[in-house]
Amino acid sequence: MSQVDVIAIDGPVASGKGSVSSGVAKALDFHVLDSGALYRLTALACMNQCVDLSDAAAAEKVAQSLNPLFKDGKIYLEGKEVTDAIRTEEVGLNASKIAAYPGVRKALFELQRRSAVAPGLVADGRDMGSVVFPEARLKIFLTASAESRAKRRYNQLKEKGISSNIDDLVSDLKDRDRRDMERSVAPLKPAEGARILDSSGLTLQETIDLVLAWYRESKA
Question: Cytidylate kinase domain: from which residue to which, for each copy (predicted)?
């Protein structure tokens, strides 16, 4: 059981979990766990090693040996900075595929649990409240319409100089939602006791403020 406060923020891809988690953590001076980055790192490592992504055992082996470094807002894999590399659509799609493998999820479980250290943790992912931190003080299921999420992702990619198509992004997001919700292990769904937060009509700061208000309420 975690001995420090954990705020678990789960939800579908591109729902704004990363930005909200960072904002909440900054306000509270908490650590942040971007669990999605671990799956993306595993996917990138598989791609770098030319591992067949349909081979669950091979992907699990890569996950077991994963030793990333998170430092000063940047992410390193085998000594190379991969902060932007793991955010490509190709890596994201492959991460969604290997996240369905029970062996991969098991390999990354303890790595995530060890992130709960003082003064507190904001954990961002798909199963933070339901599986990894069921004892979390506050559990949030952050969602938004596929169209709203696609627009956000489009703008993110545009800022990085990556061309994309809104309709394709909507289709990809719906495919990934279905795959995440239908997988046999830790399917995407609100954790027991989670508060549902639809951010479709909210600004980033409004969403952060609401999570902070709910956290203060949980401690009252």
Answer: 7-215
